[in-house]
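User: Here's a chain of 191 residues. Predict its fold as tokens.
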Amino acid sequence: LQRVELAIEAHEGDVVVGLGCLLHAGGDLAEALALRVGRPLGRQASQQALDLADGGMPPLAQHLARQRLADLFLDTWRINGGTTASDALWAGLPVVTRMGESPMSRIAGSMLTALGMPELVTEDMVSYRQLILTLAHDASQRRALRERLQAARYSEKLFNTTLYTRHMEQLYLKMVQRLRAGLPPDHLAVE
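Assistant: Prediction complete.
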């Protein structure tokens, strides 16, 4: 494993957001640590990142509790956080992402859209950086995002397993109907 740190600086040069991430040698994201806004990536956070590399993930409850302490989750580009971003969203931690062209760079954007929070999805590095800096300096906006995210957990598509199950059942019925009608496989959708 190799450890990578990224710091985004404010116009005066103060570090406002720190992100530590551990990458497999092949470049796949293993874990992203979102750190409290206004604190540089310090010795304690660095030690936590190294502890993850040495000991793996903590139990799920501890992992989610730790994410609730952060203000923002800065998603990685090219390969989005996937399960890690999903965990952050479930814990109530707003995710800021930059969407790319490949499926792996669109995961968090799809999740945020399914949660009704597309304003946290950016298309380029300039808008990604600007959104992070805007949110870093606006505690009331971060608080409002957290409140919306908490409500969306139970009302929007991403975590709605009842709706997901109903949609899957509808798709299975459509597949069987197509098979019985002698039709070839096709892309199917539900309303």
